[in-house]
Amino acid sequence: METGFFQFTVGNLQCTLITDGKHAYADPKALLFPDAPAEELASELAMHGISADHWPCWVSDYSCLLIDTGKRKILLDTGAGEMLPEAGKVVENMRAAGISPESVDCVLISHAHPDHVGGAGYFPDARIVMSHREWQFWTGSPTLPRLPDDFRNLLASMVSSLLAPLRERVELVDGDTEIAPGIRLVEAPGHTPGHLALLAASRGEHLIYAGDAVIHEIHIRNPQWSPLVDVLPDESTRTRNRLLSEAADNRAVFVGFHLPHAGTISRDDAGFAWHQLVV
């Protein structure tokens, strides 16, 4: 998003996709598609203009979503805050979109990874909502068996330090939870145990915010391929299939934190297909 934000409507809901910045991840094949068969992955990468033999880094978008119901402003995820020099721009881009950060009255955290919760301090007066299961996982002794030891320890330490200041502010929810009329949080486990997604409906139109349930466009065509950072890969696959099916069935606008833009999902002979909204 060259302007730092993109605005669209879903029924009566005014929606703004707000970039927090970007981040470059090394060794993206191992990070995003560790269990994908080599030949199939090479074919999928080629369709995206990527060489399987030379893909040194993946530059990921960080996109938060703001929903204005007319009575409330609800922000989905907060970006990385001050952790990364190329991120932490959610407030700047929110202002560029004509939205006052002080007007945000509810912040929904899809999961506790640092790039999603790092900017929570930018919204000191907002209600913060997170999954009870997610909070318990990260404030206990999180098990991250798929990650290398050094990355595992760093991630657990970072999350712990970011959640500690929120302890007195956070509202923990269990199961499906209505946040506002027509807007509800649903369990979407896999990427993390307490990962949440958001489903919204207004005047017959639908919106799905998937958080990190779908990280790359290739996961839309191949939901069976789970990223290395997915704590529960089998659950992650089931969650992806469920959210993508719901998006296709309802012709929903589909948003993911790491996807390059908002789009829609359809079905074809190969499975699910992604269609980016026209900018």
Automatic annotation (TrEMBL):
<protein>
    <recommendedName>
        <fullName>Metallo-beta-lactamase domain-containing protein</fullName>
    </recommendedName>
</protein>
<dbReference type="InterPro" id="IPR001279">
    <property type="entry name" value="Metallo-B-lactamas"/>
</dbReference>
<dbReference type="GO" id="GO:0046872">
    <property type="term" value="F:metal ion binding"/>
</dbReference>
<keyword id="KW-0378">Hydrolase</keyword>
<dbReference type="Pfam" id="PF00753">
    <property type="entry name" value="Lactamase_B"/>
</dbReference>
<dbReference type="InterPro" id="IPR051013">
    <property type="entry name" value="MBL_superfamily_lactonases"/>
</dbReference>
<comment type="similarity">
    <text>Belongs to the metallo-beta-lactamase superfamily.</text>
</comment>
<feature type="domain" description="Metallo-beta-lactamase">
    <location>
        <begin position="61"/>
        <end position="257"/>
    </location>
</feature>
<dbReference type="GO" id="GO:0016787">
    <property type="term" value="F:hydrolase activity"/>
</dbReference>
<keyword id="KW-0479">Metal-binding</keyword>
<keyword id="KW-0862">Zinc</keyword>
<dbReference type="InterPro" id="IPR036866">
    <property type="entry name" value="RibonucZ/Hydroxyglut_hydro"/>
</dbReference>
